[in-house]
Amino acid sequence: MTQDLVTDADGRLVIDVRGPRVGAAITSVVLGTALIVQGPVGTGLVAWQWLAFAIAAFAGLRWSPYGRLFRAAKRRFDLGPPPATEPEGPPRFAQLCGFAVASVGLVLFAVGASTAGWVAVGLVLALSLLLAATGLCIGCELYLIGQRLRARSSARAGGGD
Amino acid sequence: MDPLLLRVLLVGVLVLGVLALGWLWRRRDGAVRTAAGDARLAADHLAAIGLDLRDAEAGAVLLGSPTCAPCDTVKAVLGDLAGERHGFRWVYADAAEHLPIAEEHRVLRVPTLLVVAPDGRIVARTSGVPRHDDLRRVLAEVGAAA
Question: Which residues in chain A have Cβ-Cβ distances shorter than 8 Å to B95?
Answer without folding.
Answer: 148
